[in-house]
Structure prediction request, 346 residues.
Amino acid sequence: MDLQGLPASHGFHMPAEWEPHTQCWMGWPERPDNWRENAVPAQDVFAKVASAISRFEDVTVCASSGQWENARRMLPEHIRVVEISMNDSWFRDTGPTFVVKRSESGKAEQTIAGIDWNFNSWGGLEDGCYTDWSLDILVARKILAIERVHRFSHSMILEGGSIHVDGEVSLEQEQKSSMSKNQIEDQLKTYLGVSKIIWLPRGLYGDDDTNGHIDNMCCFTNGHIDNICCLGLMMKVILNMKDLWKPILCFLMKLMPMEEAAGVVQGDDGKAKLPGTRLAASYVNFYIANGGIILPQFGDKKWDDEAVRVLSKAFPDHKVVGIEGSREIVLAGGNIHCITQQQPAF
Prediction:
């Protein structure tokens, strides 16, 4: 059911990702022009991610009709698998943004809703990752229908990976838009229920597919931490956030090897994946579950271990679970946060 008006005027807001979830939503990869070797290695890693999250909360994986049986076979029985058609499996950007409100005493009313933003494949026909996103644009609406959750719709193009919130403050990455910053801020405040917006001036170098999403750069924590690893300009912005919890920043740069690029079908619809392409391998691109942190691991033991140490300190009440083989996801343009979407428990 569609809701009219603005979410904030109904009392809704987007909660922080560390607040309780009822479940996590994921898609299932298959397109051969983005995932190497017909997505077989990526499907193995997606199954690892889903299984790790399911240790802490319920997981629903959405697969196309052609892949439903394969996904069902590869995933543990306790993970729900539903059939949804999609152009690709980046549910952080195509899934709904869930918002919540506290029910007034004695009133029987729904306290969760979803925002169905517009989507254009990260740049439209000129700069997008593929030219047909007609299935992706329906993913959020289908998820909300499955869950019987009320829906707010918005014509503004917004990808979930371009925002982070702590329940009150929104951390944004500047992107191309026909709207002014003030117009964007007004819309985000009335839809996400946030009171303050911080803009970071640019994204991570090499994150060309998304034009530099915030979830590859930094995120909020639910407490203070001492370790920050970031780049010069970002440091200036971060250190001016005196009234905010410190964000975490830690990332690596890797190059796409020849043998891995050779496993991608270079088609006309998707962006080329060429040897030597610089990959935005970021440990910040993790998922916060109910009591768990699902963290990318890239096969560099020194930095893999350091990321586990920093995240364990940042979230002392969470168990950090590293996912070996996460480079399969970064080869296609994102990581664990990009392929997941939390549904809050309210």
Observations:
- The CA atoms of residues 44 and 262 lie 19 Å apart.
- The chain has one domain: 8-344.
- The chain has a mean pLDDT of 83.
